[in-house]
Fold each of these.
Amino acid sequence: MAILCLSNGHGEDIIALRVIEQLQRCYPNLSIAALPLVGQGHAYSSSGVSIVGPVQQMPSGGFIYMDPRQLLRDLSGGLFGLTLAQYQVVREHAKAGGHILAVGDIVPLLFAFLSGADYAFIGTAKSEYYLRDETGWLINAKSSEKIWGSVYLPWERFLLSSARCRAVFARDSLTSEILQSLGVGCSDLGNPMMDALDPDCSDPNTLTVLLLPGSRSPEAQNNWKLILQAIEQLSFEKITFLAALSPSLEKVAFESSLIEFAWQQDGDSRYQKENSQLILSQNSYSHYLAISNIAIAMAGTATEQFVGLGKPVISIVGTGPQFTYAFAEAQTRLLGCSVTLVGEPNQVPEILKGIVNDPSFLAKIAKNGKRRLGNPGAAARIAKHLGSIFDPTIPDYGINTHCK
């Protein structure tokens, strides 16, 4: 059995990788490779997963839907030729009898459908929470969005209902429920985004604030300066700030900004200002999420994972290309009361103090995060299901079975 995994973004690559790792663990003889449709797939290559076909980093970073002008930049950067070459690789895989696992949105899903192969889909980009919650439609949900009955549009549901689409995995229980009501055979096995994270071990008697500027340069550096403005007045408090930086970013740029904001270096990657300390790290991501009480975040996947741990987030509107007002506002709908969106950095201190001193609100946030992101272990459950549907000789021992 051979599976080609298609994904279209860094966050999607990581989610796909978690499922791939479980597939390899459950089925050692499985032949599996990846084709990242966006970016260069560092998550795959650093984990030893073979990348087949051409890859290229486009100017937009994959966010052409945020700004149509980005599409023109990508086209001039070779997007059309890259897409054509990638599609040819997918077609050859299908002709050889291989299966496809599409992870992300309609782009890898459409590739899988057009390939002619049997395929499965893990939907990471869309959730009914963008339009509704358990009580009904959101007030700010547009009529043009509600008219289709689901965040998944009719043509997307057509692709998900194909006889060759052997499995669909939605990112949360609400989305699974709506898709099932519309005739899509959707499995509710959880969200792999919450796998491989350290369990919450934050200390309620201290205040540790996680800083998440995003993972793409130069946007992350611009976001970092907004975050430093936001914590300017908080430095007088006894607070530990933990900055989780992507390994792909140049750390020196973030250190330079700290000096600009009068933070004094106090050891390797440690800084001091007034009564607060700030620590930079590029390899403590999961640990920092676990020990922090609240986050100031201008990120995508990282924000969702922190919310999934049952913790509050304050987000600041940035200038993009990813973290624009449109992106941030949509994220607040996706994550509900767990995220507070502000327009200016100077609004952060008062809001942060209000959140951490409100036990009833924190309890509500904890419950909301668990409901919207689910429990860990989804990758293993999905892998077991994929093995049984793609290879009839593999028995399905149940989604709760742990591979040995």
Note: The domain at 208-373 is CATH 3.40.50.2000 (Rossmann fold).
Amino acid sequence: MNKKVLSILSAVLMMAGCADNINSDHYYTNQAGKVSTVAQCTVLSVRYVTVDDSNSGAGTLIGSIAGGVAGSTIGGGSTAHTLGAVGGALLGGAVGNAAEKGLSKQTGLEYIVRMDNGQVISITQGTGQALGVGQRCLVLFGSTNRVIAQ
């Protein structure tokens, strides 16, 4: 029973906590075929940042349930089962929360660019295509904004 619970917990946490692909060359199917406005710019600065998915609570919830079920199998009496379930739920929730946070964190790049009209903007995206200071680029304004090489 414990092996089943741990296997289910591991699989669900891997699916629930995976981070989105934030690279400029990645599109979701609902973004394909959409029109974006494009403008020319020059990169003013680049810095590494940490991009964290908002904590959905799924890891904590799933960990608590799995931990509670696994903990309830401890001991022989009803009090031991109850204490095991509570302890397992608390421990499972903490482990699930930590797993979700760790799986959803990734490194990104924050670009500060000057548009050809003089406006200065910031766009954060993945590290897939690194751009350099002074490089001429294009900004794609759409459902997801991107900076790409010209």
Note: The chain has a mean pLDDT of 75.
Amino acid sequence: MKLLDSLPAFPPHVFVAEIDGAKAQTLRGFYPRIAKTLIFPDYFGKNLDALLDCLSSLEVVGQQEVVLLIRNAQLFLSKEKEEKKTSVLHVFRDAEKPENRYDGVTFRVVGIRGKK
């Protein structure tokens, strides 16, 4: 996840899906938010394997470029053990790789630091 201090300008053709890290401090809070934001199928299993599968197949959003924007990124999964957060970040990195895409979509994750 690329971490920035301010929101970059995204071209109009980019689908930007936002999650507030303050509301996703646990996996329990994160999974339903990402599922709704990125229009995951109802059978999304709320585990890391299912997360990678869904992130690697985002044609449902109808755009060729998708950005997952995490606001207050410093709070994202902050109440989880470090290894769980690291595992989610690893899934994000894997989903960004073109060789792991099933859909031809360019996917990336951007984190925006919140106010201190």
Note: The two ends are 20 Å apart (CA to CA).
